[in-house]
Amino acid sequence: MPLSTPFPARGSDRPPHPGIPAPQSPSGTPPTAPRRPGGTSARTAHTDRFQTAGPPQPLPRGVAELPPAHTALICVALPAVVISTDQGQLTGQGLEGFYRAGRRVLSRCQVRVAGREPLAVQGRMLGADRARFVGTVHVAPDSGPDPDVVVERIRSAEGTERIVLHSAAPRPLRLPLEVSLGTDLAEFGAVASGSSGPELAATVHDSGLRWSSGNGDCLVTAVPSPADALASAGLLRWEIELPPGGSQTVELRLHPDGPGSARAVRRGVTSPFAQAQATGDDPRVQPLLRTCVEDLEALLLRDPAHPTDVHLAAGAPWRCGPAPADCLAAARMTLPLGTRLAAGTLRMLARTQLGGPGLRSGMIPGPRRDAGAHLPPGCTGTDATLLFPVLLAEAWRWGLPERETEELLPAAESCLRWLRTTVGDAVYLPDPQPDGPLRCETQAHAHRAAVLGADLLEVWGRPGGRELREWAEELRDAFIEDFWIEDGAGGRPAAARTRDGRLVPYLGAGAAHLLDTGLLGSGALAPGLLDKGHTEQLARLFGGPVMDSGWGLRGLGAREAAYNPFGHRGGAVRVQESAVAVAGLAAAGYEEQAGALLGGMLSAAEAFGYRLPEMFAGESRAEGSAPLPHPAACRPAATAAAGGVLLLTALAGIRPDAPARTVTLRPIRSAPLGEIALTGLRLAGAPFSVRVGRLGLVMVEEAADGLQLGV
User: What is the CA 206 to chain-centroid distance, rounded?
Assistant: First the structure.
């Protein structure tokens, strides 16, 4: 299915190496490739970062690393993105430039005032799609240390830059303003690998400059029109007159043409998210929620063939296409903001579901994802197929209309049928690879899908629920015996079990999914794979310094072999797993550990300006320290922004059952953030507001007509 993606998407969690995208097999996993030392396929380790909207673009091999993005200011309004440094000038170096649908439409935009480049004073984000840069210029030689002119630049992802000159001089100024422009019209993969080629020659066109190549065209126009336009130098020039204290504005606008010039999703499509607010004793909750919603809106994509169906890209700058597992996980965490994103995501993925005969029938295709040093790459298609019925079941409880739920039921049934067919007479869901391990995290996803899927089928009078429920009980009975490693400290779950029965013994954040259960009717939670005693032990492990970095949950315990605080699956804090752990611990009643992780994540969010990256280093928190950014993390990222929503809504413990017109509340009684009010959420198709007091008492302040508080 063609998708308007600004960059090659990556669904994996590891920084990609530019290379030729691996073709997808009908199973949704790339074909076998030669394996590199350590057991990771040279082709499959990063393939899901290079899904493309059109034909794959060959990229140079042998590139050791990508340009760092952790200090970049990334403005996003998909399919448009602009990447800048805090200096403000776009020099064409690294990833800098305006992009549209995976192509760099403008790589250079350098301003000179009176022959001088402004001295950069500040560069900061104004929102998910805009950044502001301020510089100063000395014009008169006798003005002393104070600048005469302040240069302000407002840069928007959708293709505009407004340049404002403010005079601070006591006399009128007449000075030249020059803007030097250039582009290579290169694909993002070529830019990232450093092989984008030279700048193209410009031509003067109307009130600006135009560039053309086989990749398309780009036109930059200016208001007011420049006094001079020099195509050979890519230069536009104005004579600016500034009275004392006066200002003059020049606006540049990009007009990309040719392939991939789709308009941003927010033009003509309303946001699927409720404009919720969070207030309370902790002043950080509102900026976190606001920024998370802004980032989610910036990452929205729409299916060109079905424009009303919106879904999320995985993240910018590396993952600006849909990754099925991430799309579903993010939509599930944002259900308190409404069900429209869930419906669009489910419909979009249902159209990709494999049909026909064969063992893969019913599967939602997804690329492989590197799983770190201890395990071979996993298939995100498995995760997506298991998440599909879970999201549908919970979206229905949050208020997805019956008509839409019934429309999507056949696709969910196909996912559940694939699950039962793949398991067969066995106890555990196998890995798609013939010799792949039985993964702990996968069994947790499969158990949740079976329990919630069985509930969904039975309520809607569909067959198959009893068989799913019986298998889920069999899996639960066997899991602890087969996956729990006993030791003198109380034991821990194994990360995986090999086909010959050996356990992969390390402890990682993937075990957080053992705490993630799911919504059933009347405010009940689905049972998990762990009993009370083993859940308590896992909570104890997550609350200790080996797993809790002080900023969030480490991807791998600090005492494990191959621990690396920057390892994407080897020790870095991943926001999604940390948010799942907080919600799961709170639901299970382990509020001390949930509150500690929540506090660490909120401090990390504050340090990152409330725009949470998909991951950051798992270094231990120390007094006066700040979390270390990962140089290749996406920021914004869908699962990180959605994780911020989950962190805050978990405080209220909202358990809805919209079909039964009830909602049950199980707040964190210890109130780790003091009083908090969440207003403007969506439940049963209407606004929903709830307040949790300092004593842990909860009050519903707004709800749909007829909605009753459950017991």
Answer: 40
Q: What is the pLDDT of residue 27?
A: 36
Could you state, in order of their start, the residue ranges of all structural domains in the chain? 73-257, 338-530, 532-645, 651-711
Radius of gyration of the chain measured on its C-alpha atoms: 26
Task: Report the chain's terminal Cα–Cα distance, integer Å.
Answer: 45
Three-state DSSP at 302 gives strand
Q: How far apart are CA 88 and CA 152, in angstroms?
A: 9
Residue 162 in tokens = 């407004």
Q: Strands of 662-665's sheet, edge to edge?
A: 654-657, 662-665, 708-709
Query: 642 with 292: CB under 8 angstroms?
Result: yes
As a whole number of angstroms, the distance between CA 396 and CA 622 comes to 44
CB 157 within 8 A of CB 126: no
Quote the pTM value: 0.89
Query: CB 465: neighbour CB atoms within 10 A?
Result: 20
Task: Provide the token pair at 636.
Answer: 């914004």
Statement: residue 485 has pLDDT above 80: yes
Q: 549 and 600 in contact (C-beta within 8 Å)?
A: yes
Name the DSSP class of 560: S
The CATH code of the domain at 73-257 is: 2.70.98.40
The DSSP symbol for 523 reads G
DSSP H helices in 460-543? 465-483, 532-543
| Tokens 């295709």 found at | 365
Q: What is the largest CA-CA distance in the chain?
A: 87
pLDDT tens digits along 88-104: 999 999 999 999 999 99
Q: How far apart are CA 656 and CA 455, in angstroms?
A: 15
**Cβ proximity of 183 and 69 under 8 Å:** no
One-character DSSP codes across 364-432: PP--EE---SSSPPEEHHHHHHHHHHHHHHHHHHHT--HHHHHHHHHHHHHHHHHHHHHHTTSSSPPPS
- 36: phi then psi, degrees, rounded to nearest 5: -95, 165
Tens digits of residue pLDDT in 426-444 = 999 999 888 899 999 999 9
| Mean pLDDT along residues 234-239 | 96
Q: How confident is the model at residue 272 (pLDDT cuts 50, 70, 90)?
A: very high
Rounded Cα gap, residues 621 and 579, in angstroms: 18
Per-residue pLDDT, 655: 97
